[in-house]
Design a protein that fits this description.
With about 425 residues, the protein is mostly helical. It has one domain (about 10-400): Growth Hormone, Chain: A (Up-down Bundle). Helices cover about 75% and strands about 0% of the residues. The protein contains 16 helices and two strands. It has helices at about 10-40, 45-50, 60, 65-75, 85-105, 110-135, 145-170, 175-200, 210-215, 220-235, 240-245, 250-280, 285-305, 315-340, 350-375, 380-400; strands at about 80, 205. A two-stranded antiparallel sheet has the order 1-2. Helix 1 (about 10-40) runs antiparallel to helix 12 (about 250-280). The protein starts with 10 loop residues before the first helix and ends in a 19-residue tail after the last helix. Mean pLDDT is about 80; it is low at about 1-5 and about 410-419. It is a multi-pass membrane protein.
């Protein structure tokens, strides 16, 4: 369609297809940012070196630079949608990269960082196509399902990459565990490839996707600010949770079970609860609630070191699961729902990519800073500071996500108010 949104005749098939890709991307993220930090700390690597893993997020932070080129290739002026081609090539590169990392072993760190950065580059490019395909292929009334697939897929993939992966490392060794993850990526990508081959006719498209078109819209600018604020408050402390629990006496196998069960049960459950709360209370209220809960969880970790409170390990584990899975899912359902509303269906891959790039850029910088602060000032100061940031962000995020009437291009149907 030249001026509107291509709508799929089978929304459930689209949600299932993109859901597999979202799970696959989160498997890679779980291995990189949850599983690998724990493995490296278990081998004695310093926290500031563990923090360097955040640099692998660089392709996710910069993918907005090539998102317009990907979208213009994916949606040519005349012809079929090429989402399947992009997903197939990116998937092959990602699978091959994990196979190589399996051969390299977790150390030395430099070649592993280089290889996983290439995998991240491929996965980030696939994500551009996946997000754009979801936005354009579903009617606006069905966008909530895509958002549920995105958030739910993220936690399922995180459970696999940060939980099952650690169990496999403990039981089978590094190489077999990494190769199992590579095989899983192939399986998860098949539904989308089959769907893209079966659907899609030749179309004419008048709109040319571009960054300039995105940045002219006030919703995009507000969304970028909201992403930066929220990620600083919610994600800064997450990379240090694994090392913190390892230093508290937790072994890798138990940590793997914790991450897996937390993401599978708590994360998915909180995502569903978050979706219901967004419909009842609005996205802004849910974001504020999540920030308050996160500050409380971080304060619990800080109290253990700063106030010398001897918290039992089960209490620490429960709070860790609540923080990394439950509270995160609750808040990001609301944030991603807001991103969906702010995106232009004619270039959904560009608009949503801008939001995710801001997320990745802030996460990367925060991860490096987190490792440095925790290593040199201790866990207590680090978690206390992160909790203060979460509380201080509440007024700003409430202002940025206030209810307004969106500025919609004339050729588009209204996307609905900010919630």
């Amino acid at each position: 369609m030249a001026d509107g949104t291509p709508v799929s005749a089978n929304p459930a098939a689209v949600v299932f297809a993109v859901g597999g890709l979202y799970v696959a991307q989160s498997v890679i993220g779980g291995v990189t940012w949850t599983g690998l930090p724990a493995v490296l700390r278990d081998q004695g690597l310093s926290l500031d070196n563990v923090g360097l893993l955040s640099l692998i997020a660089l392709p996710w932070a910069l993918k907005f630079l090539w998102a317009p080129m990907v979208e213009r290739y994916r949606l040519p002026p005349v012809g079929r949608n090429r989402s399947g081609v992009i997903v197939a090539v990116g998937g092959i590169i990602s699978i091959a990269g994990l196979i190589v990392v399996g051969l390299l072993g977790p150390s030395p760190l430099a070649p592993v960082l280089a290889c996983l950065t290439i995998v991240a580059l491929a996965a980030a490019t696939v994500d551009i196509a996946c997000d754009g395909y979801a936005v354009e292929s579903l009617p606006r009334s069905q966008h909530g399902w895509a958002n549920a697939a995105q958030v739910g897929g993220a936690y399922l993939g995180s459970a696999i990459g940060g939980g099952l992966f650690l169990l496999l490392v403990a039981g089978l060794g590094w190489t077999d565990a990494m190769w199992a993850m590579a095989a899983l990526l192939a399986v998860l990508g098949l539904p989308f490839l089959l769907r893209s081959q079966a659907a899609g006719a030749s179309e004419e498209r008048a709109h040319v996707p571009s960054l300039a078109a995105a940045l002219r819209r006030p919703e995009i600018r507000r969304g970028l600010l909201a992403a930066a604020l929220y990620v600083v408050a919610q994600k800064t402390a997450l990379m240090m949770l694994g090392p913190f629990l390892v230093d508290a006496g937790l072994d890798l196998a138990t940590l793997g079970l914790l991450n897996g069960a937390g993401s599978m049960v708590v994360g998915l459950g909180a995502a569903l609860v978050g979706g219901a709360l967004v419909r009842m209370l609005g996205a802004r209220a849910v974001l504020v609630i999540a920030l308050m809960l996160q500050a409380l969880a971080l304060g619990t970790f800080a109290a253990r070191d700063l106030l010398f409170i001897d918290l039992p390990l089960p209490v620490l584990l429960a709070v860790a699961v609540a923080s990394s899975s439950g509270i995160m899912a609750l808040g990001f359902v609301a944030l991603y729902a807001q991103f969906m509303h702010w995106s232009d269906p004619r270039q959904g891959g560009v608009d949503f990519t801008l939001f995710q790039s801001m997320d990745a850029l802030v996460s990367m910088a925060g991860g490096v800073a987190a490792g440095f602060v925790a290593e040199h000032l201790g866990y207590g100061v680090f978690f206390a500071g992160a909790g203060v940031i979460a509380l201080a962000t509440i007024p700003a995020i409430a202002f940025v996500t206030r209810r307004t009437t969106p500025d919609i291009p004339a050729t588009l149907e209204p996307v609905g108010e900010s919630q």
